[in-house]
Write a structure and sequence with these properties.
Layout lengths: L1 E5 L2 E3 L5 E8 L8 E6 L6 E6 L5 E3 L7 E6 L4 E6 L8 E7 L3 E2 L3 E5 L2
Parallel strand pairs: 2-11
Antiparallel strand pairs: 1-3, 3-8, 4-5, 4-9, 5-6, 7-8, 9-10, 9-11
Amino acid sequence: VQLQASGGGLVQPGGSLRLSCVATGNISSRLTVGWYRQAPGKQREFVADISPDGRRAYADSVKGRFTISGDNAKNTLYLQMTSLKPEDTAIYYCHVAKRFWGQGTQVTVSS
């Protein structure tokens, strides 16, 4: 399984970005998929995920601003981010079952 994340960039506070994560290989639909992020000098932290039963979970810091979704036909996971804040600046990593990880995509929120 390989994961390719994209969609990061530089955005002003209050702006939006949509991250994508394309998976190649044989992936069971009975695995949790999601996103983590790592800011400079900090540990990697949970952002959001989707459980095999379809339930979505979010970190308190992004609840109400970020939306995780998936397109099974395209083997793609998304993270729609709105009302971005400078503290959202980090490298964002997608994962499958926390066993397979994408290479990360940089999100920078700055004026």
